[in-house]
Amino acid sequence: MEQTTTALDIGALNEKIEKESAFVDILTLEMNKVIIGQKHMIERLMIGLLGQGHILLEGVPGLAKTLAINTLSKAVHGSFSRIQFTPDLLPADVVGTMIYNMKLNDFSIKKGPIFANFVLADEINRAPAKVQSALLEAMQEKQVTIGDKTFILDRPFLVMATQNPIEQEGTYPLPEAQVDRFMLKTVIKYPQMAEEQLIIRQNLKGAYDQINPVVTLEQITRAQASVREVYMDEKIEKYILDIIFATRSPENYRLADLKPLISFGSSPRGSINLAMAAKCYAFIKRRGYVIPEDVRAVVHDVLRHRIGITYEAEAENVTSEDIINKIVNEIEVP
Questions:
Q1: How many CA atoms lie within 13 A of 176 on its CB side?
Q2: Distance CA 143, CA 150 (A)
Q3: Within the chain, where are the H helices?
Q4: CA-CA distances (angstroms) from residue 216 to 113, 220, 225, 273?
């Protein structure tokens, strides 16, 4: 009897999610007017938005990272701000500061660019640690304190930070503990030749298609709540935990050869984010339940910045990607 009820519940949930996720296709189509190719990046932006997480994008310049988040903010009817990180940036330039008002003979608060629905932190590794931590605190707490006043940030709130992998001179790489605050780290590849041909044509034409607001902020907030309702079976939870624990103690999973290559495994934030990202992925695919393929689809983006590699791994040219591949191929799929 109980089994039938569960099946009925999942059937009803599936219908509900199918209705509520209809806007994902509309939003993707709207973004595709301007963003050519980069399906992976758009999908990851959606996961970050629905999972109330933040995204670290790594890619060479000119791959439409700024354009993507700007387009998303227009399509969602949200506010957008861009912070260009430079070595002389101060925390007040990000969160805001108190200014003395001579007329009123008092201090007034000037809010910084962090007060927006979509914040692009461009080249986050160019600013010193003090500025990075001011941004990361806002990301984690979803609030900002200026002087003696605390402000709750607007919802939805999505930070997309970018970093350039090719220039490391004069940069301040994010410490491992801070990179862990990002739900996803997505590596962006070059477009295909046919896609790049379209990009050239579109740019030479000189005019982009107008992006219309097709989704409201309320719809996004409702979808963020619905994502949490997506059904995740105990077997899937166990599968996620096996993957996470294999990054910490590979020898318990017939992966003893990985032990000398891993300096530290994923934190519990990794398991939370992997479960959340899998639910978001299922939601985007308009399903009310999570399947193992959902976990496998997001595992690289969730874990690539959460596994530390040793000098031995570097010497052998083994990356965290290779380690994730080995783990995913070894762990039994439910």
A1: 12
A2: 7
A3: 2-20, 22-32, 39-50, 65-76, 91-95, 129-141, 176-179, 193-205, 217-229, 234-248, 268-284, 292-303, 311-315, 320-330
A4: 21, 7, 15, 25
Residue carrying the six token digits 């296709």: 25
pTM over 0.85: yes
57 - beta bridge partners?
162, 186
Instruction: Delineate the domains of the chain, giving CATH numbers in brackets.
Output: 38-189 (3.40.50.300), 229-330 (1.10.8.80)
Higher per-residue pLDDT: 98 or 3? 98
Can you tell me the mean pLDDT for 225-238? 91
Separation CA 136–CA 179 (nearest Å): 9
71 contacts 35 by C-beta, under 8 angstroms: yes
DSSP secondary structure letter of residue 71? H
Q: Which of 182, 209, 203, 179 is nearest to 191 (CA)?
A: 203
Residues 6+ apart with CB under 8 A from 120: 65, 66, 69, 70, 80, 81, 82, 83, 159, 160, 161, 162
The amino acid that residue 289 corresponds to is Y
> What letters, b where the CB count within 10 A reaches 16 and e where it falls short, cover 211-242?
beebbebebbeebbebbeebbbeeebeebbeb
Q: Is residue 5 over pLDDT 60? A: no
Check residue 61 and report its DSSP letter: T
Q: Tokens 């783990």 correspond to what residue?
A: 327
Angle at 18 between CA 12 and CA 21, to 5 degrees: 135
Report the phi/psi class of residue 239: left, alpha or beta, with left for phi > 0 and alpha for psi in -120 to 50.
alpha
CB 247 within 8 A of CB 266: yes
Per the model's pLDDT, the better-predicted residue between 274 and 91 turns out to be: 274
Quick check: helix, strand or coil at residue 184?
strand
Contact predicate 14/287, CB 8 Å = yes
Contacts of 181 (CB under 8 A, 6+ apart): 54, 136, 139, 140, 269
